[in-house]
């Protein structure tokens, strides 16, 4: 028993400095944000995205200046920013990803269908709707709706865009919306926080969230903030800010045009 306790003590001593080193990476003088410089409408170098506005809110509440590390989202984003210790939080990150430690979620949203308001496909609210057959449909390859479209027998109708691109030089969502508007695409299936704010600015387009899917990957996701594993104090501080300022966060998201769902992805929040 004594030997076991000694071993535990040794292990604890070995782990404690490592955990302290993780915690020490966080800046106490700046609110350091890891962000994509061209992920419009979420984040942008000119700081007009809705994630930039949330970062500004948190910086004000913490009494710290907001400082960005800009890097295109895609392979290596977390490793070269958050994990490298040069920034301390990713404002928008899907719940459950093992690359980061998630805070509590601060909103839930879903993929949806973008069509012209005057399109015969405007009433469609499920990917299994037979009305979609034989119509060109835009989708980002490798995303959950691409799987559901294929399962619905619409593989031949899909027009794919790459998932990981440098959005400083490529604009998959903008391209899809432009082609829906022109009629080159009959519809596009896009992540709500990307499509919603852009569709809000275009009187010819509409966004319909996918709330009725019964098969395949789920279409809704809870969005958190991401911090480094082991930074539990920092995570709790951010959770407290989310809880105390949820109404202000919601106001930013609604003003931007982000479709907000209940926690179970079943209905839009009023």
TrEMBL record:
<dbReference type="InterPro" id="IPR001638">
    <property type="entry name" value="Solute-binding_3/MltF_N"/>
</dbReference>
<dbReference type="Pfam" id="PF00497">
    <property type="entry name" value="SBP_bac_3"/>
</dbReference>
<feature type="signal peptide">
    <location>
        <begin position="1"/>
        <end position="20"/>
    </location>
</feature>
<dbReference type="InterPro" id="IPR022448">
    <property type="entry name" value="Quinoprotein_dehydrogenase"/>
</dbReference>
<protein>
    <submittedName>
        <fullName>Amino acid ABC transporter substrate-binding protein</fullName>
    </submittedName>
</protein>
<feature type="domain" description="Solute-binding protein family 3/N-terminal">
    <location>
        <begin position="30"/>
        <end position="256"/>
    </location>
</feature>
<keyword id="KW-0732">Signal</keyword>
């Amino acid at each position: 028993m004594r030997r076991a306790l000694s071993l535990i003590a040794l292990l604890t001593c070995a782990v404690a400095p490592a955990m302290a080193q993780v915690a020490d990476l966080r800046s106490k003088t700046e609110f350091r944000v890891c962000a994509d410089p061209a992920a419009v409408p979420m984040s942008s170098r000119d700081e007009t995205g809705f994630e930039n506005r949330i970062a500004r809110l948190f910086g004000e509440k913490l009494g710290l200046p907001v400082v960005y590390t800009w890097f295109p989202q895609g392979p290596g984003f977390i490793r070269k920013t958050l994990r490298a210790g040069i920034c301390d939080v990713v404002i928008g990150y899907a719940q459950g990803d093992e690359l980061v430690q998630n805070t509590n979620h601060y909103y839930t949203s879903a993929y949806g269908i973008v069509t012209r308001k005057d399109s015969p496909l405007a009433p469609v609210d499920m990917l299994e709707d037979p009305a979609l057959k034989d119509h060109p449909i835009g989708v980002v390859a490798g995303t959950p709706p691409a799987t559901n479209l294929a399962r619905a027998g619409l593989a031949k109708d899909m027009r794919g865009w790459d998932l990981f691109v440098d959005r400083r030089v490529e604009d998959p969502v903008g391209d899809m919306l432009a082609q829906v508007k022109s009629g080159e695409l009959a519809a596009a299936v896009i992540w709500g926080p990307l499509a919603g704010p852009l569709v809000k600015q275009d009187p010819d387009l509409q966004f319909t969230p996918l709330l009725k899917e019964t098969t395949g990957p789920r279409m809704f996701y809870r969005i958190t903030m991401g911090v480094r594993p082991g930074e539990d104090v920092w995570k709790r501080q951010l959770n407290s800010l989310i809880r105390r300022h949820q109404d202000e966060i919601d106001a930013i998201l609604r003003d931007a045009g982000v479709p907000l769902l209940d926690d179970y992805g079943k209905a839009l929040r009023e």
